[in-house]
Amino acid sequence: MHTAAGSQARLPIRSDMDLVWVRQHVRQSAAQLGFGLVDQTKLVTAASELARNTLVYGGGGTMETEPLTEGATHGLRLTFSDEGPGIPDLEQALSDGFTSGEGLGMGLGGARRLVHEFSIDSSPGAGTTVRVTSWVGRPPRPREEA
Amino acid sequence: MPEQAESTAGSPAFEIRDFLRRRREQIAQRWADEPLFRAVFTVSRDEAVEAGKAVVDALAQVADAARVEDPDAAGFTTVREQLARMGTARSRAGLSAAQVSSELAALRPPVENLLLADLPDAPAEHTRACVTTLSVLMGTLRVVVMQTALSEGQALIDRQRLQLLEVATPVIKLWDGIVAVPLIGTLDSARSQVVMETLLESIVEQQARYAILDITGVPTVDSLVAQHLMKTVAAARLMGAECIVSGIRPAIAQTMVHLGLDLGTVVTRASLADALGYVLHQLGVGIVTPGANGTNGAVAR
Amino acid sequence: MSQAFPGPHGAPVAGHVPVLRLGEVLLVTLQGDLHDSTAQQLQDDLAETIVHSGATGVIIDISGVEIVDSFLGRVLAEIAGQTDLLAARTVVVGMRPAVAITLVELGLTLPGVHTALSTEVAMELLTGQAPSSRFGGLRQERL
Fold first, then answer.
1. B16 and B141, same domain (yes or no)
2. Is B162 on the interface with A (CB under 8 A)?
3. Which of B197, B239, B287, B288 has the highest number of chain C CBs within 10 A, making it the mutation to test binding with C?
4. Do residues B206 and B256 both lie within one domain?
5. Domain containing C48 — which CATH number?
6. Quick one: B97 exposed, middle or buried, by C-beta within 10 A (0-12, 13-18, 19+)?
7. Number of domains in chain C
8. A140: chain B residues, CB-CB within 8 Å
9. CATH architecture of A11-135
């Protein structure tokens, strides 16, 4: 269930308890790759939001972690996949305040602001895959809208 | 001289190689009197001569490999560090790149004179070819020095940028429970992140209920800077501290109005002094004017 | 709880968070990584305790919490709103800088929640006492 940060890993997201494992695994991997405390916290929080989405809206799924290297920079990529009902309106799902379940509706939009790269692939009936990447030592992206 | 007869048949590069080896001592002696060597090797003339010999050896090796036009030639490897030191020393002394370059150019004439003196009976064409080769080789030496000086400069800039990021964010304890950060210069994303983290850490360390962000030294406030300020204020509030923004100059206030920027509920004051006054008032601290009624202390403690 | 199995940083334990009573004030200390269900449980427990005890204030110390996501953020906001309705005040204490930066980036600024740097300051806020030791000296000399 727990693998070294240097290698790829795949964790199930089936219950409340799994969310805790996901957070701890992402924290460990990020720390080993050299992420600073603030960036670790942002990435773990983003993982928590996305894992909860996978659990609550996707009916469970998996998270895959993949360490990356680009030149001298290390990064961590997280991929959350489920085979749930999918998201009919991505635009709306990414806007703040939108929610169809619990939480403050910050899940997707909030997680996007905490990472450097964000992509989502979803269609009704085909499940949802969210992929986020953050890099060590890179300044945060400015918010698109003021 | 027997070896001269031997090498006249060789290519100009080999001719130059033999010449450099033969005249090593004399070349180094003449270079030691040139401004470049004199200014860099100030301890003793012998030191300058030794350094000059090392450069002559390197040039001979490059000529031997027939790579007089190649700044990456293996022959330069041994003296690259020394050349870089010389280049940096001169630019640190305040010389421009052009001035360093002309000091390097001044190394050529003494060598050329020695070369011409060595070839009195050679055919004109051969002499010309040898002089050209020497010129090319000395030109390549110049390129090597300028190259290393430039990369040295880039490394210096990178180092200073990092240092600046840290140094430019001093946190000052103004009073028990009050910290201030005077911001100077442009606030980009990386810098804002450092400022935010430094300020929030100092709030915890000092148990400061109030933090003052003074932006007197920030040249422009655009929507990005305003956003960073608001984020910092909001984060401080979540931790249990109040953050005041001071030093909003009239010109900046005007730009902010033009851009439609609103700092929302953030407490702002015109100057750092005004902000301190506001915070002291909040803490219930009074300021007593000295001499007004015979009290001796300026500030109540 | 039966499903506690060992983890790398000590097993995350699902269950109750103890609520301490100090006079009129209830003190809750959150630590480590919280289960969603634990946070939810705390919200229910607190509402009940306030009603039974007649407490006028709640202090939630989160200095030992490494992560506050939108779920825990919502729980904190709801506890504050709920205690408000019960005529009590909630103060969240000791949020770490990294957590604060992340919450702001998430867009969660918890506007209805009172905050303080330490439990001492929070006690002063809730019991309405003038700040005693720290600034007392300053006040005296003003006279």
1. yes
2. no
3. B239
4. yes
5. 3.30.750.24
6. middle
7. 1
8. 189, 193
9. 2-Layer Sandwich (3.30)
Rounded Cα–Cα distance for residues B98 and B90 (Å)? 11
Distance CA C134, CA C69 (A): 34
Neighbours of B205 (CB within 10 A): 11
CATH code where residue B109 lies: 1.10.490.70
pTM for the predicted model, two decimal places: 0.67
Complex confidence, ipTM: 0.84
pLDDT of residue C3: 41
Q: A46: alpha, beta or left, given left = phi > 0 and alpha = psi -120 to 50? A: alpha
H/E stretch holding B215 reads: strand B210-217
Partner residues linked to B222 by β-bridges = none
pLDDT at A20: 93
Q: Residue B293 contacts by C-beta under 8 Å, 6 or more apart in sequence? A: none
Sort out which chain A residues have CB atoms less than 8 A from C106's CB and list them. Answer: 45, 49, 106, 110, 113-114
Boundaries of every domain in chain A: 11-135
Q: Measured between beta carbons, which residues in chain C are less than 8 angstroms from residue B300?
A: 138, 141-142
Asked whether residue C85 is assigned to any structural domain, the reply reads: yes
pLDDT in tens, C39-50: 999 999 998 999
Q: Token digits for B197? A: 């983290």
Same domain? For B136 and B270 the reply is no
